[in-house]
Amino acid sequence: MNKLADLIVEKILVRQAEYDAEFVKQIEKENGIKLEFVDAQKHLIQQEIEKLEIRLQKLLDREMYEAASRIVDEINNLKKNL
């Protein structure tokens, strides 16, 4: 049952992506514009990584290696989600 449900959901997602792509093409053609979509979640994760990297550098400058190690772990966990 689960395999069948997974296959159905996958087909729906593929079909929806096709419809979305066609819709974007149609809007661009009708309005003479180029649409660009940004993945908001990835953008927020990237911003958080940048903040943590600044914090990491400050900790390293102060030779606070244990705290820096925790920040590195946080950065690595966030990068897994990109």
Low confidence ranges: none
Q: Give a count of the beta strands, DSSP E runs of length 2 or more.
A: 0
Strand content: under 5%
Order of helices and strands: HHH
Specify Rg, calculated over alpha carbons.
21 Å
Number of domains: 2
Helix-strand makeup class: mainly alpha
| Fraction in helix | over 70%
Shape: elongated
Total count of helical runs of at least 4 residues? 3
Mean pLDDT: 91
Give the CA-CA distance, first to last residue.
Answer: 31 Å
What is the makeup of the main sheet?
none
Question: Concise description?
Answer:
By secondary structure, the chain is an all-alpha fold. Helices cover 82% and strands 0% of the residues. α2 runs antiparallel to α3.
3D architecture notes:
This protein is mainly α. It folds into two domains: 1-35; 38-82. Helices cover 82% and strands 0% of the residues. The chain contains three helices and no strands. It has helices at residues 2-31, 40-61, 65-79. The mean pLDDT is 91.
List keywords for this structure.
3 helices, 0% strand, elongated, 82 residues
Topology, element by element:
Layout: H1 2-31, H2 40-61, H3 65-79
